[in-house]
Amino acid sequence: MKNLRLSTLLTATVLSLTLASCHKDKQVNLVTTPVTDGFYVLNQGGFNDNNSSLSAYSYASKQVVADIFLSANGRGLGDTGNDIEIYGSKMYIVVNVSSTIEVVDPNTAKSIKQIKMFNGTVAREPRDVVFYKGNAYVTSYDGTVAVIDTASLAVTKYITVGRNPEQLTVANGKIYVANSGGLDYPNYDNTVSVIDPVSATVTKTLTVVVNPQNVTADANGNVYVLSAGNYSTIQSSLEVIDDNADVVKSQTNFDAAAFTVIGSNAYYITSLGKVGVYNTKTQSISNAAFISDGTAITAPFAITSDASTGEVFVTDAKDYVSNGQVFVFDKTGKKEYAITVGINPGRIALLKK
Length: 353
Description:
It comes from Mucilaginibacter mallensis. This is 40-residue YVTN family beta-propeller repeat-containing protein. Pfam families: DUF5074. InterPro entries: DUF5074, Host-pathogen_enzymatic-act, WD40/YVTN_repeat-like_dom_sf, YVTN_b-propeller_repeat. The protein is mainly beta. It has one domain: YVTN repeat-like/Quinoprotein amine dehydrogenase (Methylamine Dehydrogenase, Chain H, 7 Propeller). Helices cover 3% and strands 49% of the residues. The chain has two helices and 31 strands. It has a five-stranded mixed β-sheet. A four-stranded antiparallel β-sheet has the order 5-6-7-8. A hairpin with a 4-residue loop joins strand 25 (275-279) and strand 26.
């Protein structure tokens, strides 16, 4: 489960945000106005602590807005923010335990609509969101993928997939869903559902290594599935699916807890807290130690990259109960700067630069 096994260890804490900078010429100051040219950080907060928050950083001013969602809306995000993505003129924030999706203006963080994800009175517990041709697709732990019209913001259908689906991705006009079964420990799921977005049905179910959590795709016809295994006798693995034939074409043991593809590189975080680079053209690790300047990150939690600049963003959860940080590296692995954000910074959404 994406970050959940860490989140369940968290306890209540006080949200007090301080700002840090790694270079004298990149001083960061606390401000109270929105940003439109940087990135957002979704901080999970503590599991069941109801303290998720949204930090915003401006490239132009080199300033951070602490919990911009709270200041823009007069209320908090809720419990355990799990995903954040920008599509068109809206930003979508998936809040797992609160079972809501906050749709906001990406320039102001002002709420446009809160979509409640419940089956009657039972929380569906949404996890991840992707977009395709005017629809948002959202996985939920109740074994469904919700289809949301991004114009009306109405849920038009729920598609039944495997148990406790985590991430999903779009490739070759299809939606691939990693079904972890993570809430049924030790009886994990081991499938990937393939959805046809036209008919909104599952057209194929692929068998993979147990506990698949991360799924992403490159531009060369490959879908990558990162399975966590059972944390004892079955190792974590990386499987590659041919998105034309929808077959698993390779599988290898692979130590990683996060995997994100940007261009021909995939950046990942190992169980030992190292950041590595996987080459999607050669299908092999090209750099097992991406950070080249000795920068130490206490507890790497999430990773992403900006394709336009080559910059790599790594979040640091620290001790999982205190405010975390985001480290920004250039494409050679040298630290450019770092900022302090909220508790358990789990996902980043990039604005224009």
